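Example 5.3 — Serine protease
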Amino acid sequence: MRRDEGNDEHVEGEPEPEDFEPGPPRPSKNKRRGLFRAVAVLMTGMLIFQSAYYLIDTFRLDTWSFLTASYQLSKQEDVQQWQQAVTKIRATENGETSFGTGFFVEGPDAFITNYHVVERADSVAVETEEGDLAEGTVEAVDEQADLAVVMLKEKWEGGITLAKTSASAGSDVIVIGNPLGFSDVANRGSIVETEKGRLVLDAPVFNGSSGSPAITAAGKVTGVVFASSTEENGRYGLAVPVERVHELINETENK
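Solution (predicted structure tokens):
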């Protein structure tokens, strides 16, 4: 129905203007944009915080300390020769790739690493000096000692000599490995003690050090790093004595 022109009377059934109550106001586009910006800023801040935490954890003071020590040690000719025999090993399982450290032994052409580095791997490959990958096969493992012998399909020049027996407590060693994503890191330490069939080292050992050789002043491998331990008075590396390495290599050669 319509209102008659010039007449104040209302047609029956027509609602009065005051009957129309305004609904709740719609949020403006500017407010919605502001909300989106706040969420985006919050997410960006969280990502920046996580990245900063990772960088701080990676480049903490003790990390800078062992990198500085490695730089000085790497100037020595003998250390440079050992570094050529130490490299990364890549293990692939169901498409997932992980890396560890290992080294070549002078004589039997065997590559030594930790069992937990190659455990359940579908394939393994060793990184060459040129950055390429040389395919290999796991020939023997010692799960209890956490050792593995890998043989390459191609010849590798150079290696480190194994000591006949492990060094005693108090002996100086140099540990060479690839901790925290770095390569050819060399650090000096000593054998603190021998216990439960393992060597305890005060040399810096971090994630990625697994499979690193502990080399004596005579230039011979006395043990293979497999883990680290944090005690009240500091952080220590744990290494498998070289005698277990000899046993595993002999097992490989007698196959």
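Remark. Residues 1-7, 52-56 have pLDDT under 50 and may be disordered.
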